[in-house]
Amino acid sequence: MAVASPTEQKAAGGARAETQLSESRPNNSAASAPAQGTALAVSDRLSGRVLDCDSRAIAGIQIRFRLDSGANAKDERAASAPTTTPSP
Amino acid sequence: MTDDRGAFTIRVPPVTGRLEVVSASYITVLEGYAQEGASRPEAVLIVAPEIGIGGTVHDEANIALPTAAIRLLLPDGFRGRFREILDASSDRSWKCECDARAAFEMREIPQIVGARLEVTCAGFETLRAAAPSRATGPYRWD
Question: Are A12 and B52 in contact (CB under 8 A)?
Fold first, then answer.
C-alpha cells in the first residue's frame, strides 16, 4: 500500500474527507458535562502556559475554553495573531 | 492573551472543559484539561504550526483504496520533550478517511518533526511513514 501525490493545501476547501478531532481523557477523569439548565454563574481562574514543540513560549496568542460536551462548545475569547518569543 | 513567557490566566466556568489556542497560524497539539470539582493545576498547551496535506492511497498495483483511513501520529516520546508537568494536558489526534477516489485531505494538522502518518486499510498491512512537512515534498511512500 502506498500513499502518493499528496499536496500541501492549507486552508483548501472542497474535499469530502475532513480532519476529525478526537479527544483523549486522563485516566482518572470521568465525564462530567453539566446537566441541562446548570447555571454557569460562578467562574474559576485557570492559569497556564503555551509552548511550541521546542519548548519556546508563544506570546500573544488567544486561549479558548471549550466545554467537554462538543455540542455546548463555548468560546471565552476571540482570536488574535500570535508571535513567538524564546523562553526566558 | 499570552504574555512574553507564554503565560495566561483565563476565567472559566467551574465545569469540565478544555483549553485550546485560537490562531490562524498555530494548532493545539496538547490541550489543557480542566476537570470539574478537581484541583486545577497549571495547564500547559503545546502548539505547532498548522498545515494541510492531501493525497491518494493505492496498493502496489496502483489500484486506488477508497476505504483507507489516515491518522497522524505524534512522535514517539513526544511528551518527554518537555520539562513542564503535563498532567493537565491531553493529546489530540487527527484522522480522516479516503473518499470514493481514494483521495484524502487533512486540512488542519500540526507540523511536527518526527510525526508520522499511519495508513490502514482492511486486507493490507498498516503503513507508517514520515508525515509531510511544509519544508519538503512532494511525497511518495512505497
Answer: yes
What's the CA gap between A67 and B80, in Å, rounded? 28
Cell matching residue B1: 492573551
Contact B13 A74 (CB under 8 A): yes
Contact A1, B59 (CB under 8 A): yes
Proportion of chain A above pLDDT 70, given as a percent: 28
Question: Which residue among A53, A54, A78 sits closest to B29, beta carbon to beta carbon?
Answer: A53
Cα end-to-end span (Å), chain B: 44
**How far is residue A18 CA from its own chain's centroid?**
17
Contact B15 A68 (CB under 8 A): yes
The backbone region for A70, taken as left when phi is positive above 0, alpha when psi lies in -120 to 50, beta otherwise, is: alpha
User: Domain map of chain A by residue range?
Assistant: 45-88
CB-closest option in B25, B92, B127 to A82: B25
Taking residue B74's Cβ as centre, other Cβ atoms within 10 Å add up to 22
The C-alpha angle with vertex A13 and arms to A11 and A18, in degrees rounded to 5, equals: 90
Query: What's the pTM?
Result: 0.71
Cα–Cα dist B28/B20, whole Å: 6
Note the pLDDT of residue B115: 95
